[in-house]
Amino acid sequence: MKHLLLMLVCLSSLPVLADGYIRGNTRVLQGSVETYVVEWPSWTSDHDRYANVTWNVMHGTLLSQDKGSATVQWDVSGNHLDLLGSLDVYEDLGGQGASISVETINTHTGESSFCSGVLGPAAIAVDFGRGGNPGPALPSGATTYGYDPACAISPNHYTLTNSSVNCRAPWHGIAQDHTPGDTNGYFLMVDANATPGEFYRTTVNGLTPAFRYEFSAWVGNLDAYGMYESPRIRFEVHGPSGFIATSGDLLIPRSSPFQWQKVGFMFDLPAGVSSVDIVMVNRHQNAMGNDLVIDDLSFAPCYPPIIASFENGPVVDREHACNSGAVNLYGRWPSTIPFTTPAYQWQWSPDGGDSWLNVPGATSLASSHSQPSPGIHRYRLMSYEALNPSQQLVSNPLTFFVQRLVVEPRTHHLYSCNGGNTYGSLAAHYRLEFADPVVQTSYAIQWSPATYLSNPNTSPTSILLPSLGASPPPNGPPVPAANHLYTVTVTDNVHGCTGSGQQTVAQHNPRKVAVPNAFTPNGDGVNDLFRPLNLDDYPGSRFFIYNRWGQAIFSSQGPTLLDYSWNGTFGGVPQGSGAYAWRIEMSDCFGNIINGSTGDNRPSGTVTLIR
Question: Hey, what's the signal peptide range on this chain (predicted)?
Answer without folding.
Answer: 1-18
